[in-house]
């Protein structure tokens, strides 16, 4: 009996134990078990998904995208532009490969076009009013693309109309110093100046000229600057190579500021207040017109006067003279004038952005924005449609995954196909003005891929220093086009630097100007941004940019033959940019590194101290606050890095993750000061603003210092001190956002 | 055997079941059970804790705080100020009732003081240079407080030094229209103008005078404006009542902008760039000095010339004449001048803020800021120490709970004891400049309690419309001092309005000016703010403010006898403000209501349409964009309200709560435009900026319209259109932040 009882007890205990174990481990609790979102909020980027994305990105799809995008010229607001709007909408609204939502947004913007009925003319006119020479009005045809009636005549957008006539002079690149130099020898009053592209902004070539009495300006691309000196279309230039044919003309927007000119800081809606056209600043005060080097050759080689300095000489087989002013008396143009007949019109036209979104699952109120402009000057196969064809492939692959329920990003992704970029980054700028508060509060980062492939040698990337690491991570995972190495390993061969923290690494550039649609994001909103492309081997060509840039030769034929046969560099860019995009959207902790930011600030500081400290000390201005600010930034960044490294983030409360991510997301916002650059339109980021001083250091400080040195005025030294305080306070303020939050 | 087997099976099954049940329900799972933070992140405000807080707030503690704070005068940067700094630090660092941390922050700021060795003088001087009358240099003593050697002589801070002498004129309140009117009758060149307080800012009384050639200004408080006409200290004024004695003088800062004047937009650190003193704007260009009505009576009643208009007449038993200029020939002062000898000095001095924090448990990176300035003009029992004694009681009660481990707020609480407010809100402004990015990104709300108790009749509150609801909730839970009713029910008797949404409710004022330390938070940072106090019964007195304001009579004796005997109104303010503070810090969803904001915008719109639409239409300027913006804001607010109401928030992912709270927190930030008011220093909030047009509508629109009507210039009508666009875009932008986040 005792034995039986004992057995029963042991048996019972055993069964009870089994029961307890089953009950505890075998059955999922409903009451106190974790809510379903606990796992979701802790989810990190899925490397398998990243792999899958990259392997799905297809070069042939990109090629076919480009073929479709470049069927016709699609200059902003033209019928061709409207076709691309509809193409974007169709793709992004596709039920099986589209995004969650896509729509268009219109702005009524100030544009400038030539008059198709009265083409602009450049002529050489004899004293008896005989036209001795007429510059070519249209680029020469080599393929049917150039014959498209929608190819716009080469012109300088925003040049005023007018009919100036005068003696020709050669003004090199049209920089302030160029006109100053020229004016020492030649009386410039009443002259027409011919300048070459490069060295100064397009509008600047006319703005710098006017004070000397110059009444009209021509601009051309010297074969030295774009064609490695080659000039003949018999066997040297396109269609025989990627070089610009003699009649090729770079079109462009001749302006200084970005965004719609008539609605500064305001989205250009129908009823928005518009400043009078005559109040617009930063555009040419005198007529200006671009011409091909075929015509420039004829004009320049006939110039009289003294020989220009050697650095002014280009690739033509003649001496570039200043001009007498005018032509040499041994030329057929002796005593003749050059005459410009410019018929450009200003118009208000509706330009569209096309927007598309993928809604985030966990943090829909955090945005990663990916953008590219849609408008071109002519067919724009490279600028911008190489970028658009890449963007369409990224959205196709991601859209498909979303539609199939295989993936949804943690954060929301916004795609922007910007309008009217060529006229001054208008679509992206208006977008940021309209949604200023929302975008400022919620945007993680902006990725810009405008010209995706300049050439097929190497990746090139620019951005805030904090994006360096995620760019590296992505570039290491992508195979370089046609090579047995990664994009990263290839990149580091072409662009590199030695980092105190990381050793030899690829050099990521800075976004200090307004060269593409990142401008408003970087400078006006202070959003962490990057610009990604593939580019050429500088050791093999001195071309300023790919030679068909802004000409009628930037076509599918040109791109597929000379820029990226097989579209494998396009594919590498799509994989790299898409990889970065997914990491920004899906990573639990944002892949932005503030210590890399500190390294750049230290680098800028070192230069500033080296260049300025002695003289500033002599003026009683201390650089200690700036040094302290940078040191505080460094120690705050190190601290935040440590917090991220040492935390068990997957098991942390989601509030901790969000807090860290907010610190990383908002870091660049802390560098904004809307009053820091009173003379620069919409530049608010005190670290990355444009600068004319040409020093690799804090832009406002460099410019203020250069000005004070020039004038020697105590008030200008005060301005240096003032900007030092602005800068130190901004860096201290940014450091304050990185330390423990309370 | 079968039976035994059966019994064993049944027994075994039963034991197994018990085991399963124990295993499932009896033992907490460690693996898949909820992480400990799941409950924390969903916790809402604890009403029992709110009750406990309110019942612990003690009137006698407040009284003793006030007694200690007012032992000596504590004008900014004096030894008395340093004593209060140390008191705050001692209290906030107390191991059993202090905060988590407390520290001081110093700024080197531009202040203005009289010279103790050369007191300012106001005299009547005969043509033979005999001094016929000297205005009292110190206020008369009624208690030992007035004898304290640290009582500063009455003066106008930031008045320039100087010795103007001229004929006296009476200029009413020194408004632009007052001088214009006076100038029609009297040649003002070389005169001294006497003005009364009210109607125009202090500095404006001198700024408005200078263009007419006035060389010096006096200012006094007319008994009509402060004492309900009473004048005698034999039985009418303090120490017999709360009224100002005849020798009482309101001191003050005579400036227009707020913050340290020499470091606009920059925190005034030692090495910060300072503008030259001569570049400071908004301060008196000519000497100005305040005097008591005892002296003003003697001067004004001796004035010659025509009788001033009836609205210019005050309480003196004589006719207020314009002045001949100068005195009537029937007076002893016939032909005499008035002479000012002003010896004020500008100095740079270190002023301290004292800061204290309670770290938040769940969202430490969200701040509720509670502030009050610490500096007074003399003993400052009411201004500001009534507020400081309330703040110290709130921190004592909350600090105790924290130290005992009974409570820790969800969000962080920051307490600020600001320095040098009396000189132009300097401490709070410098703080916001130094920590601009951090505070902009993370601050939920700012609560200002400066003068806690003006008088003991009713609560008075001002703030953004979104705080109305939480103010009501708190006020309903607090018992009105000495009454059998709630603060809310008492409040609604004194201030009320009919709301379309809520019916008759207490009227919450707007923070459109820069009257206290909320200014930088509201206007510069766009942080949702409120200002809370107890105030008098307007039906019982016409006093412009409590009569001892900025005089040597603002003492503990005065406060405890005439303002709040028993300190029960102080207690009611502490309970109300503390209740609001706890709700902002602890509520799961922030108690800020955006639909109430919509109601205010609609109200402003209605007024704007009524006042401006016809004329604007005639000028071709449409108000439709503004109407659309307000309608969009309303519908977005309604939508967000619905989302909050219909969500099961306690069971929602914490990311959803945070998203909604971010929308509510950042709402006011969306109304900022740093370029909206180019002529107003540090005013960026397009809805609440100051306005001189005196209309209950959008300030920039009202001012631009008034100016265009005045000048009739097309360019000024353009400015109206421009501001309409700025305003519409800001409201649209704010609406965009309230709709679904993607």
Automatic annotation (TrEMBL), chains A, B:
Keyword entries, A-Z: Aminopeptidase, Calcium, Cell membrane, Disulfide bond, Glycoprotein, Hydrolase, Membrane, Metal-binding, Metalloprotease, Protease, Signal-anchor, Transmembrane, Transmembrane helix, Zinc
Stretches assigned to the PA domain:
165-253
Molecular function GO terms recorded: aminopeptidase activity; carboxypeptidase activity; metal ion binding; metallopeptidase activity
One of the record's GO cellular component terms: apical plasma membrane
Q: Which residues form the Peptidase M28 domain?
A: 353-560
Q: Which cofactor does it need?
A: Zn(2+)
Q: What is its main location?
A: membrane
Q: What is the annotated localization of this protein?
A: Apical cell membrane
- List GO BP terms, alphabetically: proteolysis
Annotated membrane topology is: Single-pass type II membrane protein
Gene3D superfamilies documented for this protein: 3.50.30.30, Transferrin receptor-like, dimerisation domain (1.20.930.40), Zn peptidases (3.40.630.10)
Q: Which CDD domains match?
A: M28_PSMA_like, PA_GCPII_like
TM region(s), chain numbering: 5-27
| Residue ranges occupied by any Transferrin receptor-like dimerisation domain in the UniProt entry | 621-738
Name the family the entry cites: Belongs to the peptidase M28 family. M28B subfamily.
| Alphabetized PANTHER family for the sequence | AMINOPEPTIDASE NAALADL1 (PTHR10404:SF50), N-ACETYLATED-ALPHA-LINKED ACIDIC DIPEPTIDASE (PTHR10404)
Q: What does this protein do?
A: Aminopeptidase with broad substrate specificity. Has lower activity with substrates that have Asp or Glu in the P2' position, or Pro in the P3' position. Lacks activity with substrates that have both Pro in the P3' position and Asp or Glu in the P2' position. Lacks carboxypeptidase activity. Lacks dipeptidyl-peptidase IV type activity.
Q: Note the subunit structure.
A: Homodimer.
Name of the protein described by the UniProt record: Aminopeptidase NAALADL1
Query: From which organism does this entry originate?
Result: Collichthys lucidus (Big head croaker)
């Amino acid at each position: 009996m005792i034995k039986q009882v004992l057995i029963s007890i042991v048996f019972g205990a055993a069964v009870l134990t089994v029961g307890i174990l089953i009950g505890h481990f075998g059955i999922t609790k409903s009451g106190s078990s974790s809510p379903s979102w606990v796992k979701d909020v802790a989810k990190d980027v899925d490397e398998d998904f990243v792999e899958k994305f990259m392997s799905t990105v297809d070069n042939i799809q990109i090629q076919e995208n480009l073929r479709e995008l470049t069927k016709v010229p699609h200059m902003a607001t033209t019928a061709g532009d409207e076709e691309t709007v509809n193409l974007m909408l169709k793709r992004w609204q596709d039920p099986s490969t589209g995004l969650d939502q896509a729509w268009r947004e219109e702005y009524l913007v100030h544009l400038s076009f030539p008059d198709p009925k009265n083409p602009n003319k450049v002529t050489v006119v004899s004293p008896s009013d005989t036209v001795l020479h007429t510059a070519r009005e249209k680029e020469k045809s080599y393929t049917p693309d150039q014959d498209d009636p929608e190819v716009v005549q080469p012109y300088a957008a925003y040049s005023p109309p007018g009919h100036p006539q005068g003696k020709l002079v050669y003004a090199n690149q049209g920089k302030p110093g160029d006109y100053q130099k020229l004016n020492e020898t030649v009386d410039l009053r009443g002259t027409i100046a011919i300048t070459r592209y490069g060295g100064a902004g397009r509008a600047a070539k006319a703005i710098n000229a006017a004070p000397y009495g110059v009444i009209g300006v021509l601009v051309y691309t010297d074969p030295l600057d774009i064609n490695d000196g080659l000039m003949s279309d018999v066997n040297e230039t396109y269609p025989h190579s990627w070089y610009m044919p003699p009649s090729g003309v770079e079109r462009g927007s001749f302006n200084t500021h970005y965004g719609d000119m008539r609605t500064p800081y305001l989205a250009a809606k129908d009823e928005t207040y518009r400043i009078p056209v005559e109040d617009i600043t930063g555009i040419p005060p005198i007529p200006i017109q671009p011409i091909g080097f075929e015509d420039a050759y004829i004009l320049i080689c006939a110039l009289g006067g003294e020989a220009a300095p050697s650095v002014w000489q280009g690739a033509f087989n003649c001496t570039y003279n200043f001009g007498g002013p005018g032509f040499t008396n041994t030329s057929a143009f002796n005593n003749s004038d050059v005459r410009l007949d410019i018929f450009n019109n200003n118009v208000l036209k509706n330009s569209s952005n096309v927007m598309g979104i993928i809604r985030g699952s966990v943090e829909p109120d955090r945005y990663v924005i990916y953008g590219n402009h849609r408008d071109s000057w002519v067919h724009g196969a490279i600028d911008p449609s190489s970028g658009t064809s890449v963007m369409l492939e990224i959205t196709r692959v991601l859209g498909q995954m979303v539609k199939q329920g295989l993936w949804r990003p943690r954060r929301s992704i916004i795609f922007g196909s910007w309008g009217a970029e060529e006229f001054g980054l208008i679509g992206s700028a208006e977008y940021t003005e309209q949604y200023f508060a929302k975008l400022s509060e919620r945007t993680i980062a902006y990725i810009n891929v405008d010209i995706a492939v300049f050439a097929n040698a190497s990746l090139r990337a620019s951005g805030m220093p904090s994006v360096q690491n995620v760019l590296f991570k992505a570039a290491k995972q992508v195979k370089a086009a046609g090579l047995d190495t990664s994009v990263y390993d290839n990149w580091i061969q072409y662009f590199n630097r030695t980092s105190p923290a990381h050793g030899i690494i690829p050099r990521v550039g800075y976004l200090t100007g307004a060269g593409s649609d990142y401008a408003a994001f970087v400078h006006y909103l202070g959003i962490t941004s990057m610009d990604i492309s593939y580019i050429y081997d500088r050791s093999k060509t001195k071309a300023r940019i790919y030679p068909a840039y802004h000409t009628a030769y930037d076509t599918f034929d040109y791109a597929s033959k000379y820029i990226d046969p097989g579209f494998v560099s396009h594919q590498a860019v799509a994989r790299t940019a898409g990889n970065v995009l997914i990491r920004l959207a899906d990573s639990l902790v944002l892949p932005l590194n503030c210590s890399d930011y500190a390294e750049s600030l230290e680098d800028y500081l070192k230069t500033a101290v080296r260049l300025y400290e002695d003289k500033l000390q002599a003026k009683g201005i201390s650089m200690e606050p700036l040094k302290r600010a940078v040191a505080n930034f460094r120690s705050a960044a190190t601290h935040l890095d440590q917090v991220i490294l040492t935390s068990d983030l997957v098991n942390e409360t989601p509030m901790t993750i969000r807090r860290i991510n907010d610190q990383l997301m908002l870091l660049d916002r802390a560098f904004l000061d809307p009053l820091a650059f009173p003379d620069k339109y919409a530049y608010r980021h005190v670290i990355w603003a444009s600068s004319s001083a040409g020093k690799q250091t804090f832009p406002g400080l460099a410019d203020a210092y250069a000005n004070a040195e020039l004038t020697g005025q105590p008030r200008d030294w005060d301005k240096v001190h003032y900007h030092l305080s602005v800068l130190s306070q901004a860096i201290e303020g940014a450091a304050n956002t990185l330390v423990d939050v309370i």
